Amino acid sequence: xxxxxxxxxxxTVERKKSRVPAKLDYIQSATGLILGLFMWGHMLLVSSILxxxxxxxxxxxxxxxxxIFDGGSPLLVSIAALVIFIIFITHAAMGMRKLPGNFxxxxxxxxxxxxxxxxxxxxxxxxxxxxxxxxxLGSIHLYIIMTNPSEIGPYASADRVWSEWxxxxxxxxxxxxxxxGTIGLYRLAVKWGWFDGNDPKATRAKLKKWKKALTxxxxxxxxxxxxxxxxxGYENAQAGKVGERYTPTAKVMEYKINDGRVA
Length: 263
Known about the structure:
Blueprint: H1 2-9, H2 20-46, H3 53-63, H4 74-96, H5 103-116, H6 119-147, H7 154-162, H8 167-192, H9 200-238, H10 249-258
Helix pairs in contact: 2-4, 2-8, 2-9, 4-6, 6-8, 7-9, 8-9
C-alpha cells in the first residue's frame, strides 16, 4: 500500500518526498559514467590497428586472457559484452524516464529550450536523439560481439566491416556514441559538481572546451580507425581472402623456419 501511495503522490506514507527519483538518477549517472569511460577505452583498443595488424592481434589475445589460457578464451569477450549490454540497457531504461511521453510534451520542451536559448538545454536534445539511435545501433553491435567473440581480429573485424556491410551501421554508431558520450560526461561533471572549485562558471566554460576537444579527437580517431578496417577488408575481398584469420608475423617466421626455408 505504501508503494501505491508513493507512486500516486510522489510522497511516502510519512508525507516525506520520495527518494526514488534521486536513486534512479544516481543509477543513470553511474551507468552513464561506466559506459562513457568504457567507450573511450574501447576506441583506444580498436584503434590499435593503426599501429599494426600484429599489435591489434596482440591486444585481442590479451583481452582473451591468452596469458592464462592457451590461445586465449573468446568466452571472456562474450561475458564482458554481456555485462556491458546489461549496463547499457539499464542506462537506457533510466534515460527513457526523462523523454517526453507525447508530442505535446515535446512541443512544450522544445518551445522552452528555444525561448531560453540555453546551450546546455540544446545539448540535452542532442543527447536524447543520439541515445535513442544508440539503443538500436548499439544493441546490434553488442549482440554480434556476444555471439561471435572469436571473430575479432585484424582480418575478422575488417571482413565484418567491409564484406558483411557493417560499415554504414558503424558510421552512424560512431557519431551517436561520441556525441552522446562526451555530452553525457560533460553534463555529469556539471550536475554533480565534480570540478567546480571556487568558480563553477569558469569551470563550466573549461569543461565545454574539453568536451569539444574530446569529441573531435575521438571522432577523428574513430573514422581513421574505421577507414583502416575498411581498407583491410577491401584488400581481403579483392584477394579472395575473406574468412581467413590473421597469422601474426612471429608465427609466419616460425613456420618458415620449421619448413627449412629460413637459415
